């Protein structure tokens, strides 16, 4: 595929562009509309001076990329990670555009990132960093402009500080600016579970299509944070056996099954799975290659690669993470033909769907029960699955490409119909 020469240049941005081009070819999109739809609309790069506990001032680089604002306010999480780059944030923003469009949400796509190792910060330092980030991008976000949410390294508490900072900026309580907040501050019931719940819902639905029963299902999950742990709990409750989990410190494998609640309690108490005795210790790389029914990458991008794709021993890949499979690995998996793949934009869409519900509840100040939230969520997931499966048949393409065709076509059509100004 042609290299894309922009400030976003990076392997992960190229991966998102290659995926886009493949879908745009199927859609027969002309060059003008193709570039207009593909490239991020705008971005903001800021530096955040933060007073550390020892009195020093440290500055952190941070980004907010708005990929699409043609179909509604932009929507996307904020990542705190030491390796985050502008190109990575741009790729994640692009995937948000296709995901929101695919599941029919009235949002564009965005993403934010702060280059920081938040694990090493005190609570006070983290609060000052979170507030400063929102202060710096306050004019770039808003309930009708761009609505952030949690991602890797951020959580409900961080969202609460961010919402409070924005509300102080505009002079009144404005919860609709951020989703993934604590329930006490206008968060939605079910939002914390939503992404993992959605990953588990799709996994169960596709296993059922394959005729595989819960008792015959073993699951390996890379990443035991918000998405991975909630997916593990939901699949465990369904009757599947969780045989592998991991985090940034390494992996645990136990063919007899891991006690998910016990592992969660350990990770909460110790801030990682390091030293957990519920199974054998492996590296993250080794874990991905263990035999299992379901492999669910729920951590970071580009972990399933040309090198390990030929060695995978699973029946189904459920992409809880965004971008875990490289473009080259996708080709290998397609050629193998023995692994089904639920692509990120479909598989982890439960998170942004319940974020949409949270935003709706904030706009109307009328709050729903968890049962209502999950019932509405499952309906939207079922609709998205049916349309992806139908498009896959129609174009005889991979499930990823069919999901992207659907997501991209709607954004491109909206742009074409809006025309250009002036
Ligand atoms: P999180 O910070 O809660 O958890 C991330 C987990 O990954 C942690 O357990 C961390 O230790 C682990 N991890 C980090 N580096 C790793 C490595 N090199 N190898 C193995 N594990 C590693 O983040 P999250 O919110 O669960 O997000 C995980 C993925 O899901 C990301 O790709 C994110 O973009 C995607 N996602 C999240 C949401 C959401 O609602 N939070 C929604 C959609 C998609």
SSE topology sketch:
Elements lengths: L10 H17 L3 H8 L3 E10 L5 E12 L5 E8 L4 H17 L6 E7 L7 H15 L8 E5 L5 H15 L20 H19 L8 E5 L3 H13 L2 E7 L2 E4 L6 H11 L9 E3 L1 H5 L5 E4 L18 E3 L8 H10 L3 E3 L1 H4 L2 H15 L5 H26 L3 H20 L4
Parallel strand pairs: 3-4, 3-5, 6-7, 6-10, 10-11, 11-12
Antiparallel strand pairs: 1-2, 2-4, 7-8, 8-9
Helix pairs in contact: 1-3, 1-14, 2-14, 3-14, 4-5, 6-7, 6-12, 6-13, 12-13, 13-14
The structure holds nicotinamide-adenine-dinucleotide.
Explain this structure.
- This protein has 422 residues and is α/β, with parallel strands linked by helices.
- Among the domains are: 39-173, Rossmann fold (3-Layer(aba) Sandwich), CATH 3.40.50; 193-342, Rossmann fold (3-Layer(aba) Sandwich), CATH 3.40.50.
- Helix content is 46%, strand content 17%.
- The protein contains 14 helices and 12 strands.
- Strands 9-8-7-6-10-11-12 form a 7-stranded mixed β-sheet. A 5-stranded mixed β-sheet has the order 1-2-4-3-5.
- Helix 3 (86-102) packs across helix 14.
- The radius of gyration is 20 Å and the shape is globular.
- The two termini are 33 Å apart.
- The model has no long low-confidence stretch (mean pLDDT 97).
- The site of nicotinamide-adenine-dinucleotide has 24 residues, from helix 7 and strand 7.
């Amino acid at each position: 595929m042609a290299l894309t020469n922009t400030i976003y240049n990076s392997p992960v941005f190229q991966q998102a562009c290659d995926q886009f081009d493949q879908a745009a070819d199927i859609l027969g999109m002309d060059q003008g509309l193709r570039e207009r739809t593909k490239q991020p609309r705008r971005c903001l790069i800021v530096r955040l001076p933060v007073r550390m506990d020892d009195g020093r001032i440290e500055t952190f680089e941070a980004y907010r990329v708005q990929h699409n604002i043609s179909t509604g306010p932009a929507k996307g999480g904020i990542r705190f990670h030491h390796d985050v780059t502008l190109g990575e944030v741009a790729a994640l923003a692009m995937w948000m555009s296709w995901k929101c469009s695919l599941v029919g949400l009235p949002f564009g796509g965005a993403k934010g990132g702060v280059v920081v190792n938040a694990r090493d910060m005190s609570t006070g330092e983290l609060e000052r960093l979170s507030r400063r980030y929102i202060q710096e991008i306050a004019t770039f976000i808003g309930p009708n402009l761009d609505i952030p949410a949690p991602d890797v390294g951020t959580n409900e508490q961080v969202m609460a500080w961010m919402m409070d900072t924005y509300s102080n900026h505009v002079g009144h309580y404005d919860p609709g600016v951020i989703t993934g907040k604590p329930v006490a501050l206008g968060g939605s019931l079910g939002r914390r579970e939503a992404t993992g719940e959605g990953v588990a819902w799709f996994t169960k639905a596709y296993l059922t299509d394959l005729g595989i029963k819960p008792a015959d299902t073993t699951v390996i999950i890379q990443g035991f944070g918000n998405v991975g742990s909630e997916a593990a709990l939901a699949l465990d409750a369904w009757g599947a056996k969780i045989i592998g989990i991991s985090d940034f410190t390494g992996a645990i494998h136990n063919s007899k099954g891991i006690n998910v609640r016990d592992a969660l309690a350990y990770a909460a108490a110790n801030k990682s799975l390091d030293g957990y005795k519920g199974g054998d210790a492996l590296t993250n790389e080794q874990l991905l290659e263990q035999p299992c029914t379901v492999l669910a990458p729920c951590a970071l991008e580009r972990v399933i690669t040309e090198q390990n794709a030929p060695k995978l021993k699973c029946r189904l890949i459920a992409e809880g993470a965004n971008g875990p499979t490289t473009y080259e690995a996708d080709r290998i998996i397609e050629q193998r033909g023995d692994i089904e793949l639920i692509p990120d934009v479909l598989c982890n869409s439960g998170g942004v769907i319940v974020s949409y519900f949270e935003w709706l509840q904030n706009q109307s100040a009328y709050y729903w029960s968890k049962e209502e939230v999950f019932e509405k969520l499952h309906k939207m997931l079922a609709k998205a699955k049916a349309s992806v499966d139908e498009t896959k048949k129609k174009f005889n393409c991979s499930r990823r490409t069919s999901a992207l065709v659907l997501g991209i076509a709607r954004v491109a059509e909206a742009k074409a119909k809006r025309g250009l100004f002036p």
